[in-house]
Amino acid sequence: MTDSTISADNTGSADSTATTEHWAARLAELSARHSVPGANLGILHRGRLIVETAAGWANSGAGIEATTETLFQIGSISKVWTTTVAMALVDEGLLDLDAPIVSVLPELRLADESLTQGVTLRHLLTHTSGIDGDVFTDTGRGDDCLEKFTALLADVAPNHPVDATMSYCNAGFTLLGRVLEYVTGVQWDELMRERLFRPLGLTHTVTLPEEALRFRAALGHLGEPPAPSPQWGLMRSAGPAGLISSIPRDVLAFARLHLRGGTTEEGTALLSDKSVTAMQTRQVALPDPYLLGDHWGLGWMLDTWDGHPVYGHDGGTIGQSAFLRVLPDADLAICLLTNGGDTGGLYRDLFGEITRELAGVTMRAGIEPAKDPAPVDPAPYLGVYERRGVRMEVVTRDGGLALRQRNTGPLAAVLDAGAEVEFAMHPVEPGVFVVQSPGTTGWIPAVFYALADGTPYLHFGARATPKVG
């Protein structure tokens, strides 16, 4: 089932209708190929929303179709929205990128004094703080949930020394949300409405489930084949890291803000051009340059496709996945929101076609196993790697290596009931392997490396995990 609308300029021209119909057909075909229950696609080109289209089911169990007005969870794309507000406060002099967070949030206590005194706003925005990122403790539904969450961080062991490496950090963005609340005196949900949702004229963007109930809302689907998830969303304290729900039209209005140097269509400056540029400037080279991008900016993931800069972000919640990519040279932004199945395969196929046809740009190829791999000495890789929320072990299996993984945090019961999974590891080059999840077409890199002090780490799923045994 599909639903499509004409481009937002409402020209109703034959060209605009044909464009929408073409991408509606491709979305439906590729969603079916990748077993994606429902998807919502928007394309912004040269300042115009040229395509809005949806396919499949918002909730297959309830028989609710996906439409262009259906809210999907954008997950960690929310981090760039939180970053944008943080950078606006930098513009206003309320925050400093390189001042310790504790200097503006005196209540902050982290696991040790070096972490407490060392973590800056820049570290939070680039995932280099050392705070263990996957802390999903539910601190309730009250407006004080971020304050309560921040207090818990005193008991969370660091994942790595400050600025020693990059490790994707949800907890750091919840902390950032608390910083924004403290310096403005405005609770995070309302701050997003005040600083972004209302100025951008967003009609279908919310942060709370009771707000989402006003609209048709998608449910995530888990497993193979995808089945409706038993839980709709994450705990409220995850808000600044990943609780915005929206539609592609609204997400692309946010992307347009960044393409326009921080100014709305009406000419209101929400962010300085200097801060927009800083967000898109390389800050940190990634230990794993294959999965999401090769560098991190401030909030944005950064990459290069066919010689052209690309910035964007992905999002993943309970059975929902979101993708946003911006190609500034082509004045092109693409948003895809989905709710289960091989969403990565759909993203790669669909965005690859869109960027070739509209920008003449070839998407960077994904990493794959070496066709003729050199013999691998397993000794440097064998052992246990562990951080909060996950335990991984590299073992020998059938003459090669395998990665065993068990999720151990609060979400394990929802996502996989804490079951251990095992992936065959295929060599790519020394220190780099790939694995593949059942029911998916893409390869996930596993990169072994060491910090400057020699401590061995495994970078997997954008997280740095230390070797502990």
UniProtKB/TrEMBL annotation:
Enzyme Commission number: 3.-.-.-
Pfam families assigned: Beta-lactamase
GO MF annotations in UniProt: hydrolase activity
Residue stretches in coiled coil: none
Membrane-crossing residue ranges in chain numbering: none
Keyword terms: Hydrolase
Keyword Hydrolase tagged: yes
Domain Beta-lactamase-related: 25-344
Protein name per UniProt: Serine hydrolase domain-containing protein
Organism, as annotated: Streptomyces celluloflavus
Lineage: Bacteria, Bacillati, Actinomycetota, Actinomycetes, Kitasatosporales
